[in-house]
Design brief:
By secondary structure, the protein is mainly β. Helices cover 11% and strands 59% of the residues.
Length: 118
């Protein structure tokens, strides 16, 4: 079972138990999360990509840690011009563990009618 979610303008394929590093979320360490922007869901036999059915998919996770990523060095250089610039950048990141992915299939019309009679 897996799902494809969108967060931080990027897409990630996630399964229960996965830990992923994403752009910083406004949540404290240990906070529970629910990813609402699900693009695709596969439960082992059915592939679901219809937006109406995807509204029934829930991806829940928990923030493991918050912090900066690796330092990147940005170096600009123009040869024979005397131009050289060196800058560093550290992106703020969140480490998230995916706890569960649930899908509640829509009730069939026959089942809905039976429940309405009861």
């Amino acid at each position: 079972m897996y799902a494809v979610i969108r967060t931080g303008s990027k897409q990630y394929r996630v399964s229960p138990g996965d830990a992923l590093t994403i752009e910083k979320l406004e949540a404290k360490q240990g906070a529970k999360l629910r990813f609402k922007d699900v693009i695709l869901f596969h439960d082992g036999k059915d592939l679901i990509y219809d937006p109406k059915k995807l509204a029934r998919v829930q991806v829940k996770g928990q923030v493991i840690e918050q912090g900066p990523g690796e330092k990147l060095v940005v170096y600009k250089y123009h040869p024979k011009k005397g131009y050289a610039r060196k800058r560093g950048h550290r992106q703020k990141l969140s480490r998230v563990r995916i706890d569960e992915i649930t899908y509640k299939p829509p009730e069939t019309k026959k089942r809905e009618k039976e429940m309405a009679k009861e």
